[in-house]
Amino acid sequence: MRTLTELDLPRDKTRRNQGDAPLARETVDPQGGAGTSRAHESAIKHVTGRAAYIDDIPSPAGTLHVALGLSPVAHGRLTRLDLEKVRTAPGVVDVITLADVPGHTDIGPVFPGDPLFADDEISYVGQCLFAVAAESHKAARLAVQAAVVEIDEQPASLDPVAAAEREDFVRPTHTHERGDWRRALTDAPHVLEGEQFVGGQEHFYLEGQACLVQPSEDEGVMVYTSNQHPSETQKLVAEVLGIPFHAVTMEMRRMGGGFGGKETQASPWACIAALVARRTGRATRIRLPRAEDSRATGKRHPFHNRYRLGFDDQGVLAGGEITVIGDCGYSPDLSDAIVDRAMFHSDNAYSLGDARVTGQRAKTHKASNTAFRGFGGPQGMMIIERAMDDIARHLGEDPLTIRQRNLYRQGRDVTHYGQRVEQLGLLHDIVAQLETSSDYWNRRREIAAFNARSPIVKKGLALTPVKFGISFTVQHLNQAGALLLVYTDGSVMINHGGTEMGQGLHTKVCQVVARELGLDLERVRISATRTDKVPNTSPTAASSGADLNGQAARDAACRLRERLFDFASAHFDREAGGLDRESMRLEDGQLVAGIGEAERRIPWGELVQAAYLGRVSLSEKGFYATPLIHYDRATGRGRPFYYYAHGAAVAEVEVDTLSGEYRLARADILHDVGDSLNPAIDIGQIEGGFIQGMGWLTSEELIWNDAGRLVSDGPATYKIPAFGDLPETFNVELLQGHPNSQASIYRSKAVGEPPFMLAISVWSALRDALASLADYRVSPALDTPATPERVLMAAEALRQAQQAPAARPDHAPA
């Protein structure tokens, strides 16, 4: 019987190409260490349904089930909360409100503002008022409906621009400023202005928010949770219960998707379940139904962006100003860092010149918006990509030409926040290679000819680059730990602080350990992420999971390896003076010492058994802290990123301008992952990130009604990309021969978030298709998501402008 790897994995490919281009090849290490393509460590479990998630954990006897009482209004004062009928409902064991919390009542992850339960002020539809614990999930859900809730409803603030105008912010405004941007605008031969609304995005993880809490000895709890940041949840549970951190243990084996939605917003449910478990002495479960999950949790931040930029006759930026306004919802959550990252990435891959970038954090009566793949970076990039298209139409140039002229380059290699862009040639090489491999210019000519003879269906083409900074912008989060255990049969267990949400982090970390110890991958196993094995961990976010935890695991493996070398050099062949310590290495499951005829090989199992009998420790901890990074928020300058990951994508679309419907016909991607840790997994991440980004920009529309209630709260009203939305031709290639210039794990680069922004090419291609309606002289406004309705309205606006040229639309460049 062949394995899943043999059946399905393109182990000899660094490109999976559904078109006609040839496949690049790699050398595959049969051991499966880091740098080779191997299947996800849980792949067989995933496809056979044996992978255990939170709801698959058997319930202990007497487990209680929790349902939540949520606010039906967006803003007001809670005047009455009568729960007597709830308490007497069939099957109900306990009912809790804010008054029942023995410890902290505010669980804001960074700044205060997130009460566990609302007590007075109501701030969004879906805010938690109380919780019911019952013998069954059905009984708890029915009991919630018996509550008497009276709220003095008040007008809801739902418009982030209006909130910014009246300075209603969750956190202060922040600014980056470099050079004399006012003079750059005054002296520039051309000045353009533009604005855009960038929609939010529902995480739509397949496994919803879920946890199981069991009371443990003394005052403690054991928490099984679908969670990207177990250490933070451990802290919050302990603070809510009023107990020491060490009394709370978190375990997280895998998530059915996270995308940022379980970085901070998995904590409330664990805190509530822990409260019930400690009060009743019984195990307690919470799992949110999809609609409640959607209403009670935050999304990707919607943004309103503006630019005013000056440029010369060649379209090269001289400078100007950019403003990004994040719709943060009702509380800070992670919005400070998210809007910061939008500011950091408002340049994308281009030198802005002398520029000021301002970030505002608007408060609205919605669930507190939170982390989502890209963490504000995609929203920030959108405004400069709009500007590149607008400049091209204004000057009558192809947008790719304008983009290439503005890429960071020698002499203009410092960002608006003071970080120097290294590996400058990468950006130019990636764009140039993709320009050639995608046959951009021939296709451009063919598309122009097609559009000239096709009055209804229009084609569009766009090539957009990505430059994405890798590191947490909060410095202290850039650290990781690992625990390595070797057993006397030679099998190896690794535990680290990262969490697995399907992205292959555990697989890569196992490959790192296998490579350092010279073992076949099958001899290395990963254990669940637990706070009692590796403490004080950072969230699995910011694309840093493999960078941080891979280095920590490598540190542990290297320390253990050196200890075994020291032991072996003295223990084996004592009569001959021992083994040559300097020539020792681990490979093919053996300790190898000496060269040529003097070479001696000792099986790994024999080495480990001898070390145990020699009372040598076979466990080791590892630690890693990212060097070089720093950022002074007071001056808005520093080096917030250890390095940048790059990429570029070409998208070709076909648009029916009478209906607004369209399809992505082809996508070509060339992406920079340095020296890949696992090419197969990296390609999967690039494909998945691109499609998820395409969904954000085209079909995934969050809709709130005038009362502030989210109405797109399930798959019937919220459209994520499906198999049929994939392009017919989908070419994905990893950039070869460009290892990371920084000392990352084996000179690889992060791959979680950067590919998401490649999908901006699809949005830009839609604008390109629409621009053909005005002979490419007008750059159409197209907010996101660019649904068929928005595309149709943009097409109609262009047609009307063509019919009445004296009444140019406001969004057309002057």
UniProtKB/TrEMBL annotation:
Gene3D superfamilies: Aldehyde oxidase/xanthine dehydrogenase, a/b hammerhead, Aldehyde oxidase/xanthine dehydrogenase, molybdopterin binding domain. Its cofactor is [2Fe-2S] cluster; Mo-molybdopterin cytosine dinucleotide; Mo-molybdopterin; FAD. SMART domains: Ald_Xan_dh_C. The keyword Metal-binding applies. The keyword Ligase does not apply. Residues 48-155 form the Aldehyde oxidase/xanthine dehydrogenase a/b hammerhead domain. InterPro entries: Ald_Oxase/Xan_DH_a/b (IPR000674), Ald_Oxase/Xan_DH_a/b_sf (IPR036856), Ald_Oxase/xanthine_DH-like (IPR016208), AldOxase/xan_DH_MoCoBD1 (IPR008274), AldOxase/xan_DH_MoCoBD2 (IPR046867), AldOxase/xan_DH_Mopterin-bd_sf (IPR037165), Xanthine_DH_Mopterin-bd_su (IPR014309). It comes from the Bacteria. Keywords: 2Fe-2S, Iron, Iron-sulfur, Metal-binding, Molybdenum, Oxidoreductase. GO terms for molecular function: 2 iron, 2 sulfur cluster binding; iron ion binding; molybdenum ion binding; xanthine dehydrogenase activity. Residues 1-40 are annotated as: Disordered. Residues 8-18 have a biased composition (Basic and acidic residues). Its EC number is 1.17.1.4. Belongs to the xanthine dehydrogenase family. This is Xanthine dehydrogenase large subunit. The lineage of its organism: Bacteria, Pseudomonadati, Pseudomonadota, Gammaproteobacteria, Oceanospirillales.
